Amino acid sequence: MVMLKGDERLDHLLAEGLRIIQSPSVFSFSVDAVLLARFTYLPIQKGNIIDLCSGNGVIPLFLSARTKGMITGVEIQDRLVDMANRSIQYNQLGNQVKVVKGDVKGIARQLGYAKYDVVTCNPPYFPVDTNKHKNENEHYAIARHEILCTLEDTIQSASQLVKHGGKVSFVHRPGRLLDLVTLMRKYEIEPKRIQIVYPEQGKEANVLLVEGIKKGKPDLKILPPLYIYETSGEYTKEMRLMLYGD
């Protein structure tokens, strides 16, 4: 059993056979988390993996189905940390996964420098001075806008956390591609793989996936485009596999 609080609900992660606690007033994951979790390289048998800006722990849960490595999530909001750890307990993953409260800025001082084989991050997308309307809900505003950390903060921390030769993966908006590549190189993470995601054929891209290697050699690969929906409005075969496992 799991104790739900307020308007929380227990949702399915169908492809992984797991459940997750979500709340419409606090946090619900988007397809971006699914895309990042599937895009990210993972060691299968062992390794240390860390996810920054973890929210309700959805990416650590996704990753737990693909690796036996130890997974740590970092989230600054108390309620989301609590939700994440109750989901971990419900899925009996406490020996492999944990979510800790922490500020991404300087998190390596708390958890250790050059300790992790893989770092993932789904950071806030929008600068605070953007023309986008900032969500009045504090939880959503922090998750979506660079209020408590910037893109540079997350990349700098990822560089501090990851081992030499380790991999770092981000999901972001295509409009921040040059910012991502520039900042990754500034902090010695060489971009190695990029995949651009489109809502459907004929539409502008709306999701960017980038993976880099700490102190890697230049050799960037652009992967085939990924489409979320068919023109009929149904999920594509690739997305059905990610979401449902079929």
Structure summarized in a few sentences:
It contains 8 helices and 11 strands. By secondary structure, the protein is α/β, with parallel strands linked by helices.
Question: What does this entry look like structurally?
Answer:
Helices cover 28% and strands 26% of the residues. The protein is built from eight helices and eleven strands. The strands form two sheets. Strands 3, 4, 5, 6, 7, 8, 9, 10 and 11 form a nine-stranded mixed sheet that branches. A two-stranded antiparallel sheet has the order 1-2. The radius of gyration is 17 Å and the shape is globular. 41% of the residues are buried. The model has no long low-confidence stretch (mean pLDDT 92).
Report the span from N to C terminus: 28 Å
The major sheet is characterized as: 9 strands, mixed
Helix content: 25-40%
Strand content: 25-35%
Weakly predicted, low-confidence segments: none
Mean pLDDT: 92
Enumerate how many helices there are, as a single number: 8
| Order of H and E elements | EEHEHEHEHEHHEHEEEEH
- The chain-level structural class is alpha/beta
Judging from the principal axes of the Cα atoms, what is the shape? globular
**Tally of DSSP β-strands:** 11
Q: What is the radius of gyration computed over CA atoms, rounded to a whole number of angstroms? A: 17 Å
